[in-house]
Amino acid sequence: MMKTDSPWVTDFMSRLEAVTPHETAFHQAVGEVVPSLEPVLDRNPVWRDGRILERLVEPERVIEFRVSWVDDAGVVQVNRGYRVEFNSAIGPYKGGLRFHPTVDLGVLKFLGFEQIFKNALTGQPIGGGKGGSNFDPKGRSDGEVMRFCQAFMSELFRHIGPDTDVPAGDIGVGGREIGFMFGQYKKLTNTFTGVLTGRSTDWGGSLIRPEATGYGAVYFAAEMLGANGSSLEGKRCLVSGSGNVAQFAVEKLNHLGAKPVTLSDSGGFIHDPDGIDLEKLAFVQDLKNNRRGRIIEYVEKYANAEFTPRDRDADHNPLWNVPADAAFPCATQNEINGVDAANLVANGCRLVSEGANMPTVPEGQEIFREKGVLYGPGKAANAGGVAVSALEMAQASSRTFWSREEVDRRLGGIMKDIHKHSLEAAEAYGRTGDYLDGSNIAGFLKVARAMHDQGVI
Ligand code: NDP
Ligand code: 2IT
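# (2Z)-2-iminopentanedioic acid complex -> structure
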């Protein structure tokens, strides 16, 4: 939780922790939001009396299920599947599916909770949800991934629908997995609908959806810099991760004249002081998306780059100690701790735009705040992905599809609006220039009004 002197915040959090023991990631996500909302509830006692916040931290529904499947060796495997249908006040549940061995209910509740605010910020009619499994796709054949996805959807299909709950990708779930899950949904229901987003453009997907999260995080950074009379031109940038979000952040940074110099995966990070240009990015995309290789292979191809293996026992991640002007964490939660945040600032980093969800621990956020770093929290900065998912829903249901330029133009407009509304909300509640408070408040206002309008349900 952010540092607070407020007895109300402390009391709210201790009651939440008492009824949700062990869900530490969820406590962290709620603890980031509640201090921002105190002045909002003070000014709107009707929401306090209506216990809007108490209702908001309780998912409307949690589905947990067994996923059994047979691997290539003929061995029966058992995983656990989940869908957290968190809040439908402003639209059908919407949010990704994560396949990663660290997935548990606490992780999915953190992601689902953040999704409510993020989706409200996009201005699109989508509620908040998240799901996934502790299945680890690493090292699995295409056939194994297909059988897992089919087994997962054989239960999930009865809970979702294009007007009910619309999942998409997240860590470990990309175009391949969406294809297998869509195929199984279609077979079980005999319907061809927009039940999942991130589909191939050959069968109902939107152009720019693969690019949208990474592009959006860079557009958000450009907005923050623009509001301060600066730009990304010539800026050295640290990017973590090497998956969907990281790849398209690197692409857009190149388009805007910046110089991305790092990428990572769970094995370590590469530093290329010459910059990761579009040709090098194409190598990474082939490596990661087609050959499913490791980022260490980058340094075999590009001799000027250096690889640093991950040291799980270290108190900091040396990626964040590379001197740079800006940082784009695009891997996973809690990848920037207090030491990392201090290192970034000490080395001249003046901007952080979060492509990942909750990549910075509260102590790190506090450091960015104190040092005046332009800090774009994930729920604002990475909202471009789900925003284009909502545009995919609109296109699919009207059976009309837009050009790349049209979707990209809308994405740019949405990121601009999120930036503006976050700043306006921060200003209105006495937190001038604070994007963390501003995005929490702007997202909450819309959901709170909708929950109030719809009565106690
Ligand atoms: P991918 O699976 O495509 O890529 C994830 C990347 O992060 C990989 O390089 C992976 O390395 C690395 N990574 C994952 N977990 C860890 C870990 N525990 N420690 C170190 N590295 C790790 O996922 P995405 O790019 O889609 O997602 C990245 C982040 O962006 C996540 O936080 C996700 O929630 C967020 N996000 C994604 C959106 C989307 O549209 N896809 C939208 C908004 C946010 P390795 O392969 O070695 O595991
Ligand atoms: O965290 C996220 O916003 C996503 N993984 C994307 C969700 C979506 O429905 O596109």
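# post-check
The chain has 17 helices and 13 strands.
The pocket of NDP (ligand 1) is lined by residues 169-172, 174, 213, 241-246, 265-267, 330-332, 355-357, 382, 385 (CB under 6 Å).
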